[in-house]
Design brief:
The protein contains 14 helices and eight strands. Strands 3-2-1-4-5-6-7-8 form an eight-stranded mixed β-sheet, sandwiched between helices. Helix 10 packs across helix 11 (248-262) and helix 11 crosses helix 12. It has helices at residues 12-23, 40-60, 69-74, 85-90, 102-115, 131-134, 169-181, 197-214, 219-234, 239-246, 248-262, 270-278, 297-314, 326-336, and strands at residues 5-8, 28-32, 76-80, 93-96, 122-124, 144-149, 158-163, 185-188.
Length: 346
């Protein structure tokens, strides 16, 4: 897709998407829809400054050469609604990024459809409303879908693309092609509340809060456990691949135990029960959510272990033999054999 891209909405999400697109070597126009009176020029300048700040962060991170920064910024324009006609008419795709208020979405999508070309795809970045709901606000739902960017949009690679029942396959393909071309990773999911990531993280974050409330551990200890033991593994293996890795039977039995102790929400999913019944327990059976030929299993495991080590090394959690102080380890081991004063002799 070589036509310019338009982002309607000049708030934080719109600014982040603009930075990502400009960095991805795509011309992008950000449209501020709000009537701001005498403060309009100042807001447009502030929005452009925010884009510049995001790109300068990439310079500090070593992702963008300082000498390339002017060229990237030249690809990004920020304009008012009154100055957007030409950009809207020429747009190859329009991202809607206005606040999560249904009436604002309705008015914005109606305006986009009237201002953009007849076949221009429209991608709402909403995290709250399904494309099936938003489709009621446009005359041509075949060109509408959701494209949910994760914050911060300029850095996070994942974008969840959610087409509706009437979305044309060509619109899904064009949107995914654009996202891939600018360095993002699109994943396609059905129009379902919470998409993929927000639905999963809502469960995990609420459970973490419950554990603090119940006195299981402090917030500091829980977050340390998540960063080191939870996040590092799932950065390499997705949740479903991890089920296969450890064995569906492990999850099945653990879930039934936790259901008995903590409640029905921990019970195994019906599909997990089906996999148990049909002998699709994962790597040990060569079949689960993924199928792996027995002859390829050793190589697969070796590749994943190497990836684990890379993630742990990048986060400073991988210890090398020569880094561990011998005497400190021996002293700690020796302390374990010393019974504390007053300990029971039974």
């Amino acid at each position: 897709m070589t036509a310019p891209i338009v982002v309607v909405g000049a708030g934080r999400m719109g600014q982040g998407i603009a930075a990502a697109l400009g960095f991805g070597k795509v011309d992008v126009t950000v449209v501020d829809l709000r009537e701001r009176g005498d403060g309009a020029d100042a807001y447009l300048a502030a929005a452009r400054d925010a884009v510049r700040a995001s790109l300068k962060r990439k310079v500090r991170l070593g992702l963008l050469a300082e000498s390339d920064l002017p060229a990237v910024l030249d690809r990004v324009r920020v304009v008012s609604r009154g100055a957007a006609a030409a950009a809207m008419a020429d747009a190859g795709l329009v991202f809607e990024a206005v606040p999560e208020v249904l009436d604002i979405k309705r008015a914005t999508l109606s305006w986009i459809e009237s201002a953009a070309g007849a076949d221009t795809p429209i991608a709402s970045t909403t995290s709250s409303f399904l494309v099936s709901r938003l489709a009621e606000f446009v005359a041509h739902p075949e060109r509408l879908l959701n494209a949910h960017w994760l914050n911060p949009a300029d850095l996070m690679p994942l974008v969840e693309v959610s087409p509706g029942a009437e979305t044309a396959p060509s619109v899904v393909e064009a949107t995914c092609d654009l996202l891939s071309a600018v360095g993002k990773t699109p994943v396609v999911c059905a129009a379902s509340p919470g998409y993929i990531v927000p639905r999963l993280q809502a469960l995990v974050m609420n459970e973490a809060a419950r554990m603090v409330e119940e006195g299981v551990a402090s917030a500091t200890e829980i977050d340390r456990a998540v960063r080191i033991g939870f996040g590092s593994r799932f950065a390499v293996l997705g949740l479903l691949e991890f089920i296969d890795w450890g064995g569906c039977d492990t999850l099945f039995h653990a879930s039934n135990y936790l259901r008995g102790e903590l409640g029905e929400r921990f019970g195994p999913a019906p599909l997990v029960e089906q996999h148990m019944a049909s002998g699709r327990r994962g790597n040990t059976d060569g079949a689960g959510f993924y199928d792996i030929e027995p002859a390829a299993l050793d190589d697969y495991r070796a590749q994943r272990i190497a990836a684990f080590a890379q993630v742990l090394d990048a986060t400073g959690q991988l210890h090398r033999y020569d880094d561990l102080p011998r005497e400190a380890g021996r002293a700690a081991a020796g302390a374990l054999s010393t019974r504390p004063a007053g300990a029971s002799q039974n």
